[in-house]
């Protein structure tokens, strides 16, 4: 899981989605479940989430639990839920982080399942949205500069669910 290089199959899909969105600005990508639920997309999304070493969500499940259960089995079940359109995001775990001024900042922690799904959705949606941007800008840069990265994760859920 140490290699985070985007697999060729994922790059090929992203290139095709970007080209279609660029060539036909009015084209609507209605059904993306089949793309988000692809084995290569979910495996790469899992690897990206795994590299972030995040805390467990409300369900308490961490990467050790998933690896004990079987990563391929876990991803297969997520893919099936996506393909059957039965996937629903879980509630967010709320924690409070102390700030320098003594106040607390709320932080929402998604379950690993939701994080993998959001990352998979980003892998598929990002090249579509980037087609409308000038070449020197990209979705990730714009989101980081504007501080709305999490909101696009919600958009990803809206586009999926």
Structure, described:
The chain has helices at 8-23, 33-36, 39-52, 63-69, 71-83, 112-130, 139-146, 149-160; strands at residues 93-98, 104-109. A hairpin with a 5-residue loop joins strand 1 (93-98) and strand 2. The chain is globular, with a radius of gyration of 17 Å. It is built from eight helices and two strands, in the order αααααββααα. A two-stranded antiparallel ribbon has the order 1-2. With 161 residues, the protein is mostly helical. It has one domain. The protein starts with 7 loop residues before the first helix and ends with a helix.
Beta-strand fraction estimate: 5-15%
Globally, the shape reads globular
Largest sheet data: 2 strands, antiparallel
Radius of gyration: 17 Å
Number of helices: 8
Number of strands: 2
Strand line-up in the sheet with most strands: 1-2
Q: Secondary-structure element sequence?
A: HHHHHEEHHH
Mean pLDDT: 85
The share of residues in helices is 55-70%
Provide the number of structural domains: 1
SS-based class: mainly alpha
Beginning-to-end CA distance, first to last residue: 28 Å
Low-confidence stretches: 148-161
């Amino acid at each position: 899981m140490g290699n985070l290089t985007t697999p060729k199959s994922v790059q090929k899909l992203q290139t095709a989605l970007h080209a279609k969105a660029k060539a036909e600005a009015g084209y609507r990508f209605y059904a993306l479940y089949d793309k988000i639920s692809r084995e290569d997309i979910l495996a790469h999304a899992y690897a990206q989430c795994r590299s972030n070493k995040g805390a467990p969500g409300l369900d308490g499940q961490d990467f050790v639990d998933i690896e004990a259960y079987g990563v391929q089995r876990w991803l297969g079940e997520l893919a099936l839920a996506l393909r059957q359109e039965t996937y629903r995001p879980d509630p967010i775990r709320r924690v409070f982080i102390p700030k320098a001024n003594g106040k607390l900042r709320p932080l929402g922690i998604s379950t690993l399942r939701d994080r993998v799904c959001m990352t998979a959705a980003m892998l598929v949606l990002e090249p579509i949205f980037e087609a409308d941007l000038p070449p020197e800008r990209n979705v990730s840069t714009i989101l980081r500069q504007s501080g709305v990265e999490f909101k696009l994760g919600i958009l990803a859920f809206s586009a999926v669910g």
